[in-house]
Write a structure and sequence with these properties.
Blueprint: H1 3-21, H2 26-46, H3 57-73, H4 78-83, H5 94-123, H6 129-147, E1 158-159, H7 167-192, H8 196-206, H9 208-213, H10 218-244, E2 246-247, H11 249-253, H12 259-270, H13 277-295, H14 300-314, H15 318-326, H16 337-345
Antiparallel strand pairs: 1-2
Helix pairs in contact: 1-7, 2-7, 2-10, 2-12, 2-13, 3-5, 3-10, 5-10, 7-10, 8-10, 8-16, 12-13, 12-15
Length: about 350
């Protein structure tokens, strides 16, 4: 076993042991994995492909609602259920609960991927800040539409059934759902970024016009990348819906100002366009947020703003970029953008 393989094995053991070693921090650990996942998915388009989106929260909120509709729809009429004060009917068997959970995760991921393709046909006609503002507009509009849709509870939201077991077991289950999704996403991206597909989206980031001239079908790659990103965001949105039990559109599902911005900050803090950057950034940001939200309540947003300013001014490449500048010998040799684009276009 190589040193690198041994390190990954230790990391996997730590991930599995974490909720048992720190049972009082199960929710915080699950939230940490949520931050890692949304940061990695944002970096797929923002870091690897060069399209900075402010609307990925659209898929998180949509995933929550799709999972809820699937779960409720298998047992009750959705409209009747939501009319009962946001979900007054909560009699679900164990089988119905777990079937809704796992089918909801799958359905949410697939539906969000489809939505990403549909939205992408319009928004990928925009570039630079126009793309960012366009996707932000989509997120805000979607949240407002859902908050006025009576069939899914409108502004009062939806209440899902409670986990049919003891509270501690439920926390462990949701931790492993988030952690399993996060590990699967990391492994998938580690492979994807070494393929021709990864070379193609990097070529789009470096020079999209040149990539098109070399025969790369840029729109297809952009749609595919955003769809894959949306799939994973939709899945964790579904998990969050069951973890929170009750959620509503603007403050929880389509929380543009909170999670929608946090995922971008995590990537900037860790380093755009790198595999480990979003992971490291999410860990640093989550610890920083938990500490400030606990000990600097009332000043937490000031502290967060200061962190963003310091990151942008002094750590333009994030933690990973700073480290590689200090230790260039650790930077693996990469093929030039021209070679990568040529290979992707073959």
């Amino acid at each position: 076993m190589t040193r690198k393989q041994f390190s990954y094995l230790l990391l996997l053991v730590g991930i599995i042991a974490a909720p048992f070693v720190f049972p009082n921090f199960g929710t915080q650990l699950a939230t940490l994995w949520l931050m890692i996942i949304v940061a990695l998915t944002w970096d797929m388009t923002g870091g690897q492909m060069g399209y900075n989106s402010l609307g990925n929260i659209t898929f998180y909120g949509t995933g929550m609602y799709v999972a809820a509709v699937i779960t409720i729809g298998m047992v009750y009429d959705v409209g009747d259920y939501t009319n009962a004060a946001g979900g007054g009917i909560q009699a679900f068997t164990d089988l119905q609960y777990f079937s809704g959970l796992f089918l909801g995760m799958l359905g949410a991921g697939l539906f969000c991927a489809l939505v990403a393709v549909i939205i992408g046909y319009v928004t990928f006609g925009l570039r630079g800040p126009y793309f960012a503002i366009g996707t932000l507009g989509v997120a805000i509009a979607t949240g407002e539409l859902v908050s006025n849709w009576e069939w899914v509870g409108a502004g009062q939201g939806i209440a899902l059934p409670v986990y049919p077991g003891d509270f501690a077991t439920g926390k462990v289950l949701f931790y492993f759902l988030f952690a399993g999704t996060g590990v699967a996403l990391f492994v998938f991206l580690k492979w994807l970024y070494t393929t021709r597909f990864g070379a193609a989206i990097n070529a789009i980031r470096d020079d999209e016009e040149k990539a098109e001239a070399m025969g790369i079908h840029t729109l297809q790659y952009k749609l595919a990348t955003w769809a894959m990103s949306a799939f994973f965001v939709g899945v964790v949105g579904a998990i969050s819906a069951f973890q929170l039990i009750h959620f509503e559109p603007l403050e929880t599902a389509y929380q543009t100002i909170n999670l929608g911005i946090f995922m971008v900050v995590c990537v900037l803090l860790g380093g755009k366009g790198t595999l480990w950057g979003p992971v490291i950034g999410a860990i640093v940001f989550h610890v920083f947020k938990e500490v400030t939200w606990t000990y600097l309540l009332g000043w937490q947003w000031v502290a967060l703003g200061a962190l963003i300013v310091i990151t942008v001014v002094y750590f333009e490449g994030g933690v990973v970029g700073w480290f590689l500048n200090k230790r260039p010998d650790r930077l693996e040799a990469r093929e030039s953008s021209d070679d990568a684009a040529t290979e992707a276009g073959q």
